[in-house]
Each structure stands twice: as structure tokens, then as C-alpha cells.
Amino acid sequence: MTTSAPEIHRGLAGVVVDTTEISTVIPETNSLTYRGYPVQDLAARRSFEEVAYLLWYGELPDEGQFRDFRARERALRPLDRTALELLTRLPETCHPMDVLRTAVSFFGAEDPTEDDGTLAANRAKSLTLLAKLPTVVAADQRRRRGLAPIPPDPSLGYAENFFHMCFGSVPDPDVVRCFEISLTLYAEHSFNASTFTARVVTSTLSDLYSAVTAAIGALKGPLHGGANEAVMSMLLEIGDPQRAEAWLDEALAAKRKIMGFGHRVYKHGDSRVPIMQDALDRLVARAADPEVTRLATLHAALRHAMINRKGIHPNLDYPAGLAYHLMGFDIPAFTPIFVMSRITGWTAHITEQLAHNSLIRPLACYAGQERRAVPAAS
Ligand SMILES: CC(=O)SCCNC(=O)CCNC(=O)[C@H](O)C(C)(C)COP(=O)(O)OP(=O)(O)OC[C@H]1O[C@@H](n2cnc3c(N)ncnc32)[C@H](O)[C@@H]1OP(=O)(O)O
Ligand SMILES: O=C([O-])CC(=O)C(=O)O
């Protein structure tokens, strides 16, 4: 009997593994909707907190629901002394994503309801993580600068409070708005690698903290969320707009991946880039600083060169990386900022996975040694 070789989908490229009601990416029209709403409109008209509510509950909140949600998020922001001490014990040589991963694992270990997978319990945990992760990211950035943490301010919105905890002040509303737009755009993107990781862990009926810890590990990689940091390091390496084309030619000849370009799903441009690029352009214009203009010119030159040479378009990490640099964040904090936003999408997917769970366990086509006898031990 002859058996035909199974079709292999390396990287699960093009494979549809389940349904989702959370978001849809339509590569043909370069569009993205959250619960049916175009992400561009959400970014323009709604706060990031409202987007978080939408992703979790399926509808935008009314006034009363939003007041209650916001109050609960603000009350959960502080870290207790044990958590703060734990953070200071981690070596400063480790990546801030390691700190965040460890913090989430710690929050799970100290939560007596860790293994309660009911909808109510998971919603409470999701809100706790949304509220506390910025406090961790800000405290970690400050300790690496030799500075004490700044406690959260419950009178400030999510984005404003993050600036306050990082720098002790809130920049002008245009900068905060640009940051908030990036959070909305980063919040959710269907079955990307980190979300799928969270769904795999959840499918074994493990707990939400374990799923999020694993997702943070997946997002850290430079082919995924880690690219926003790599973009900025690459721009600093190139340095001069005049060098962009020659640098790109050398990098492509050396078969280097150009960070912030390309996407598994979008092949003609990422739906989120135009709005993030506009926000970045506004940041650059308001800075009116020659050094900022030089970086923006380099950023544009590399984008044009990459599209001309390879026809490969930037993804969201390309404008977001430079925007975070201009806002004053340290490069290793960029992917943790992505986590502060994507925690909403991950936890929405964890809830959805549990509601219609089936253990995720694909098959592999064996390509190793033929069956053979174990030799006698000598
Ligand atoms: C928020 C996010 O996670 S967005 C993604 C962030 N990641 C990055 O920016 C890292 C750089 N980009 C990449 O490595 C890729 O584009 C990925 C991983 C994002 C998508 O990869 P895939 O869907 O597997 O596309 P694949 O790697 O097959 O690319 C197709 C071709 O384009 C090339 N290509 C794709 N992206 C790039 C890039 N950034 N630089 C150079 N070449 C690229 C590939 O080398 C490949 O060429 P080949 O056919 O000659 O071998
Ligand atoms: O969808 C993907 O593969 C990666 C991505 O853009 C995201 O997670 O935001």
C-alpha cells in the first residue's frame, strides 16, 4: 500500500485553525477591525481603555460602565513591596522582557485564584495585569537609570500615567495622543505568534498567568514584537540618511532581515502603518529639532529604498520604534510597551479559547532515522 506524503505547512503559514470573534485582518484591503470596528476609527475617536473594554466585552462601554472600568483599573495599578523588591533583585543585565515575564509569573504565584479559570476570575486577572504591567515597565526603566520608582497617579489616564511613572511628568497632549494611538494599534492582531502561544497554553486548561508568561516569551523575539527595538538599533547603526541605500544593499547582500519590514499576513502594507506614520510625522514636526529631522529623514529613506529594492513594506514596528525613541523611552522598553497593550488581545483570546476549548495538538511528519535495533550495551 502506498501512502502519499502529507502536505506540510511549515510555520502554519496559510493554515486556518479556528474561528475568532475578536478581530479580523483582511490583507486584500489592508484592513483590521476589532469586534467589527475599523482600528483607524477606534484610534482616532476612542481611548485605549475603551478599546481594552471593547476587546474583552465585545461592545464599547457606555458612560457608567466606562467610569466603573476606569476606576477599577486605576485602583489596581500599585505594586506591593514584595513585587517591587523582586524586580530590584533581577540583574540589570537581563532584558526588560525577562523582568516582565518574571513579574507575570510572580503575580500568578501569589494569586490564590490562579487556577480558577471561570470567566469572572479571568476578567479580574486580565484587568489586574493591564493595570500593573505599566508600573513594572516604568519601575524597571527607572532602576536601570539609577532612579527610584514613581508610584502611579490614579487621577491620570493609562497613557498619561505611564509617562508620569517613567519620567515624573506628562508631556503635552499631542505626545500622549501619539502614544495612545500606538497602544490601540498594538492591542490585537488575530492569531499572531504570541496570541497563538497564549491559546496553545490555555488549550491545556492551564492558567491565564502561564499563558501570558508564554506569550511574553513569544513576543520578545525579533521576528515578532522584538522588532520595534531592533528597528531603532538599526537606525542608530546606519546613522546617516545618505548611507541608507548603501547600508540596505550590503545588508540584503548579507541576507540580513531588515527589521520592521515584511509581514506574514500583509504582503502589500500593514493596515496600521499609515495612522502610526501620521502620528510619528506629527511628533517629528512638533519637535522642530535638527537631530529629530535627521532621524526621520533616514527612516523615510530606508523605507523608500526597501520598497524600491524588494517591494517589502514596513510593518507597525517600523514607525512605532522611532516614535517611542522620540518620546524618550529607552530602546529595551519598547517591546515591554507592546506587552502593556497586547495584554488586552492576549487575554481576550484566552477567554475565547476557554469558551470553545479544544486541545491544540497538531501532527508532524517524521523525517528521522528509520526504525532500528538498539545495540547491546558494551
Ligand atoms: C508586530 C509584528 O510582529 S510585525 C513583524 C515584525 N518582525 C519584523 O519586522 C522582522 C523582519 N521581518 C521578517 O523577518 C519577516 O517579514 C516576517 C517574519 C515578519 C514574516 O515572514 P514570512 O511570512 O515567513 O515571510 P518570508 O520570510 O517567507 O518572506 C518572504 C520573502 O521576503 C523576504 N523578506 C521578508 N521580510 C524581510 C525583511 N524584513 N528583510 C529582508 N527580506 C525579507 C524573505 O527573505 C523571503 O525571501 P525569499 O523568498 O527570497 O526567501
Ligand atoms: O500578526 C502578526 O503576525 C504579527 C503582528 O503584526 C502583530 O502581532 O501585531
UniProtKB/TrEMBL annotation:
Pfam families found in the cross-reference section: Citrate_synt
Query: For this protein, what reaction is catalysed?
Result: oxaloacetate + acetyl-CoA + H2O = citrate + CoA + H(+)
The question of whether Transferase is a record keyword is answered with yes
- Gene3D superfamilies membership: Citrate Synthase, domain 1, Cytochrome P450-Terp, domain 2
Question: Which pathway is it part of?
Answer: Carbohydrate metabolism; tricarboxylic acid cycle
Output the GO biological process annotations, alphabetical, semicolon-separated: carbohydrate metabolic process; tricarboxylic acid cycle
Please list the GO terms describing molecular function: citrate synthase activity
Keyword terms, alphabetized: Transferase, Tricarboxylic acid cycle
Entries under PANTHER family matching the protein: CITRATE SYNTHASE (PTHR11739), CITRATE SYNTHASE, PEROXISOMAL (PTHR11739:SF4)
Q: Which family does the record claim for this protein?
A: Belongs to the citrate synthase family.
Q: What is this protein called?
A: Citrate synthase
Protein's organism? Streptomyces shenzhenensis
